[in-house]
């Protein structure tokens, strides 16, 4: 699954990576949690636009949020089917957290530490003065990612960003494949990330005296560049 992630990039990097103009000042976020707002990218006519949306789709009167949609069933589930057809989005992220067990969080990022894009679904608000909501697609984890958790966010290579945003439902199916673990670094971090009130750079610092799955060199031909 993907329940916590980071976004510590700048507007300039987002423009270089995605060609999107972000007018707001972006503060680094080290612990984005469900119900909190984060940046998403959606196709607006011929241009890509950025907006803030809440992480998680409210489902029911109790305020419970659905934060992930499974790539294997997203086209079948009534909750997600329409959004998959008509309002797919990109969720920029610098990394994400995953738990190998209680009190054993890991941080995962691209080997080159650049901003990445999760496949997301956007749900527009019923009123213009409200924020929309988004969920992140997940898929089966591959390789070393599966050592930490059996699910992984669906990280899209740059070659498939446009297909995810503007392709037909059938064309977008090519995007629904697990990201390869060789493109990522993953390493243990301190349990403090479990506290959503914590939001600082120390959360991504490698924890001491723990097994490290870090890979130091980026592979050749990185599709996520």
Describe what you observe in this structure.
The protein is of the alpha+beta class and 225 residues long. Helices cover 14% and strands 33% of the residues. The chain has 5 helices and 14 strands. The protein has helices at 11-18, 78-86, 145-148, 161-166, 169-172; strands at 4-7, 29-32, 37-44, 47-55, 57-58, 65-66, 68-70, 88-93, 95-99, 105-110, 116-123, 132-140, 151-153, 184-188. The strands form 3 sheets. Strands 3, 4, 7, 8, 11, 12 and 13 form a 7-stranded mixed β-sheet that branches. It is globular and about 50 Å long. Residues 209-221 have low confidence and may be disordered.
Question: Which structural traits does this protein have?
Answer:
225 residues; alpha+beta; seven-stranded mixed sheet; 5 helices; 14 strands; 14% helix; 33% strand
General form: globular
Unreliable stretches: 209-221
How many helices? The count is 5
Structural class: alpha+beta
Distance linking N and C termini: 23 Å
Count all strands and give the number. Answer: 14
Helix-strand string = EHEEEEEEHEEEEEHEHHE
Helix content: 10-25%
Which value, in Å, is the CA radius of gyration?
17 Å
Proportion of beta-strand residues: 25-35%
What's the overall average pLDDT, rounded? 91
How would you characterize the largest beta sheet?
7 strands, mixed
Write the layout of secondary structure elements.
Blueprint: E1 4-7, H1 11-18, E2 29-32, E3 37-44, E4 47-55, E5 57-58, E6 65-66, E7 68-70, H2 78-86, E8 88-93, E9 95-99, E10 105-110, E11 116-123, E12 132-140, H3 145-148, E13 151-153, H4 161-166, H5 169-172, E14 184-188
